[in-house]
Structure formats: C-alpha cells, structure tokens
Amino acid sequence: MSDTAQGFLTVTGETAAPTRVRDYVELLKPRVMSLVVFTGLIGIMIAPVHIHPFTAALAVLSIALGSGAAGAINMWYERDLDARMARTRNRPLPTGRVAPDDALGLGVLLSIFSLLLMSLATNFVAAGLLAAAILFYVFIYTIWLKRRTPQNIVIGGAAGAFPPMIGWAAATGDVSAVGIALFLLIFLWTPPHFWALSLYRSEDYRRAGVPMLPVVAGARETKRQMLIYTALLLPVALAPALLGAVGWLYGAVAAVMSVAFLGHAIRVWRTADDDSAHPAARRMFRFSLLYLATLFAALPLDLLAGWVLNG
Ligand code: HEM
Ligand SMILES: CC(C)=CCC/C(C)=C/CC/C(C)=C/COP(=O)(O)OP(=O)(O)O
C-alpha cells in the first residue's frame, strides 16, 4: 500500500476517515450506478410477477453492488489513463488516495458478494445475467476493446444494457421479449450518450491515447454515427408499447422524448466541427440522461395509470 493511501492525514491534511469513505464510494461510480440501479428496479417493477419487497430490495442491492464492483475494477485497470485525463485525474487512484490493490480487492470482493446475494435472494438466471454484465464491462469493454477500437462502446456498451433484464429475471426467473427490448433500448442509447461527451472531451482521449471515435475518425463521422443510432433508437424505444407490455402513456412519452433526442442529434450534426466547446453536444449528453430516466420512469407509471383507469 502506498504512503499516501496508508496515511489518513498525508494527502489533504483533513480529518481522514470521512475522506477515505468518500474515496471508496467514488470507486463505485455512484452517479452512474444510480441510473443503472433505476433501470434494474424498473425491470423488477414491470415484470408480471409480484415478489416480496424485501426480495426486490436485495435484488436492487445486488445490482448496485455489482455495478459498483465493476466500476472499482475499471478504475483499478485504468489508473494510468485516468491520470492523463483532465476529467478523471482527481480520482482516488491517480491521486494516490486509495492504493491500487485495495481498489482491486474491493471490486473482486463486491463482485463475489453481489452474485452470492443475487443467487440467494432471487435465482440463478438473474445472478448469471449480473455476472455477465460485470464480466462484460471488465473484460470485453475495459480490458479488451477500450484501448483497441473506436467501436469499443458499441460492443462494450452491452454491459450497461443488462440491468432491466436482470431485474425482470430476478422477479420471474426468466428472460422475456420486453427484457430484450429494454436491453436493446439501452444498447442503442449508449453510443449517442457517450459520443456526445467524447466530442467535447476528445482532447482528453487524444492525450491519453484512447482510440475513441472523434479521435480516430473525426467529429464529422462521430456525429453521423450518433445520428444513425439515435434514429434506430426511436422504433426500439416504442417496442415495449408495440409488444403490448405497456400502453399509450409510455408510448407517447417514448415518442416525444425520442423525437427530441433525434432533434439533439440533428443539431449536433449541423454544428461546425471546429467548434471545440461543442455546446450542442454538451446539451445532448445531459439530455441523454434525462431521456433514459424519463422513459424508464414512464414504464411503471403507465402500468399504474392502466390499473387506476381500468380498476
Ligand atoms: C459503455 C457504455 C458507457 C460509457 C462508455 C459511458 C461513459 C460515460 C462517461 C465517460 C461519463 C462521464 C462522466 C463524467 O462526466 O465524469 C458518463 C456519465 C454518465 N453515465 Fe454513462 N456511459 C456508458 C453507459 C452508461 C449506462 C448504461 C448508464 C446508465 C444506465 C450510464 C449513466 C451515466 C450517468 C448517470 C452519467 C452521469 C454521471 C455524472 O453525473 O457524473 N452510462 N458516462
Ligand atoms: C449491473 C452492472 C454490472 C453494470 C455494469 C455496467 C456499467 C457500470 C455500465 C456503465 C458503463 C460506464 C459507466 C462506462 C464508463 O465508461 P468508462 O469506463 O470508459 O468511463 P471513465 O472514463 O469515466 O472511467
């Protein structure tokens, strides 16, 4: 363990204990986790099977811990990259506030714990899907693809698409057409979500030597591919309503939000490529988070409205 990580007072000179807890929490990427967990919770809520709220809470906790574990292992593996990027250089590992071995240990332990908890609380299908998500994010995205190909997030993005399917499986013990539709929704959402950010952070990625699309293929090609994925997202976002799993309320929200998301993609596509601040891309990135949260919130609200209206 390094001196800085060992000594409670060595880095900031502040009282150390709260800082350390905060550092370990930061390793779990809590803000990303919040949306991951939300989509998993919705998967449980909309499944046509009632599970005990305590079981549901344990399933959600398992998804949260699994997502955090994957985040900690990602930060352990990428500590060299994170040190070279303005956005990430103040993270606990590049600053030495947490030792690499501790981050890896936390990630591995939490992975095992989350899988055991999911198996015991729900079933092996949900635990298997959670394992697949963790392994995908760590091995396929972080270790294999991220440093090798500009399509890294298209394939690697599948990791973040698992949670609604995991939630559904936790409730039903099965995978369904709706679960697959929600997987595809997040899968197609991820490229515009991430490439919007990578447009205004491309200098960071260039410096760190990560072959993200704007670095390798340029802003124009990135914007073109963002437009394609955002257009493909529109019919997929409507799929839960077309499959009859939810009704017109969700369908209307999905249609309006998807057209608005497409509007963002068109505005980004129309902006000049040398506009290094990329304000349109910043707005699109922020909107991507609102988009996913709103669509997933609309799923149970639609079912609730149906029950109220139909008695
Ligand atoms: C491989 C797929 C993905 C990649 C490469 C990616 C990448 C990123 C990056 C680089 C950020 C920037 C964070 C910052 O500004 O420091 C971010 C933010 C965020 N992402 Fe993603 N993301 C992916 C998938 C997802 C998924 C599946 C979700 C949730 C369902 C998600 C939710 C979020 C949230 C909530 C934020 C905002 C975090 C904050 O406020 O700091 N992302 N993402
Ligand atoms: C349920 C479960 C196990 C889910 C795990 C999947 C997960 C956490 C997906 C989110 C993907 C994500 C935050 C990518 C960040 O990219 P990056 O690592 O390139 O970003 P960085 O540069 O900020 O580290």
UniProtKB/TrEMBL annotation:
- Which reactions is this enzyme annotated as catalysing? heme b + (2E,6E)-farnesyl diphosphate + H2O = Fe(II)-heme o + diphosphate
User: Can you quote a single GO CC term?
Assistant: plasma membrane
Q: Name one Pfam family in it.
A: UbiA
- Topology in the lipid bilayer: Multi-pass membrane protein
UniProt subcellular location: Cell membrane
Gene Ontology biological process:
heme O biosynthetic process
EC number in record: 2.5.1.141
Swiss-Prot/TrEMBL keywords: Cell membrane, Heme biosynthesis, Membrane, Transferase, Transmembrane, Transmembrane helix
Taking the record's annotation, the residue ranges forming a coiled coil are none
Q: Is Transmembrane helix there in the keyword field?
A: yes
Pathway of this protein?
A: Porphyrin-containing compound metabolism; heme O biosynthesis; heme O from protoheme: step 1/1
TM stretches of this protein: 32-51, 57-77, 98-118, 124-145, 152-171, 177-197, 226-243, 249-269, 289-309
Q: Which HAMAP family does this entry report, sorted A to Z?
A: CyoE_CtaB (MF_00154)
Q: What else is on record for this protein?
A: Carbon 2 of the heme B porphyrin ring is defined according to the Fischer nomenclature.
Could you say which protein family the record assigns here? Belongs to the UbiA prenyltransferase family. Protoheme IX farnesyltransferase subfamily.
Q: What is this protein called?
A: Protoheme IX farnesyltransferase
Source organism per UniProt: Enhydrobacter aerosaccus
* Gene name in the database record: ctaB
